[in-house]
Specification:
homodimer; mainly alpha; 2 strands
Chain lengths: 114, 114
């Protein structure tokens, strides 16, 4: 996973239409017209988004059928998930701190109630 | 978490220098000069990157000290982690399929050895 590949994936995800296209592929493969339908966009605009997703390898297009349906490729998302690993301890730590704080509040309240 | 906020976070992460800045903040808060040091970049170029990270709320700058040190804010990364949740089943499924395939290979080998 080169640094440039990660940038290409993050760039592809930095757009609400492209994320919506990905989400709609979670239910199975779709043709370009199927994908274009929910968006008020021209075909060239949708095709441009698909090319960005294809470059990031987030979608793949079948070469078999004439209408070349698109399907989701989860591998680049897994790469991001692995990149995220180094940061996970930070919010887990914050959550633990919050839990400690709530416990302190609770024990203070119990002391006051006595 | 609005769709635009997610786009701003993904956009901020779509650059190797900005990801390196974030990684260097995992060891603690740093001044702008500390952050600029490992990169062969001008101060205005680094400042521009910091502004993109700040807009995405990935870093925060202290208002207390005169040199305004930067620190990491993990919340936007957590938002991405939550967004990712809907896709996790895909690579977990692929991993399960791989495991099944390896088990089949193994049992085939055992049958051949008999």
């Amino acid at each position: 996973m080169s640094s440039d590949q990660l940038s290409t994936i993050f760039h592809a995800l930095a757009d609400p239409t492209r994320r919506a296209i990905l989400a709609s592929l979670t239910t199975g493969e779709k043709t370009v017209s199927d994908l274009a339908e929910p968006f008020d966009m021209t075909m060239p605009a949708i095709t441009k988004h698909l090319k960005v997703l294809e470059k990031a390898k987030l979608i793949e297009r079948s070469r078999e059928a004439q209408y070349r349906p698109c399907h989701l490729n989860p591998d680049p998302l897994k790469d991001i998930d692995e990149w995220m690993e180094q940061y996970r301890k930070f919010w887990e730590a914050s959550f633990d701190q919050l839990e400690d704080y709530l416990k302190q509040l609770q024990s203070k309240r119990e002391t006051n109630d006595e």
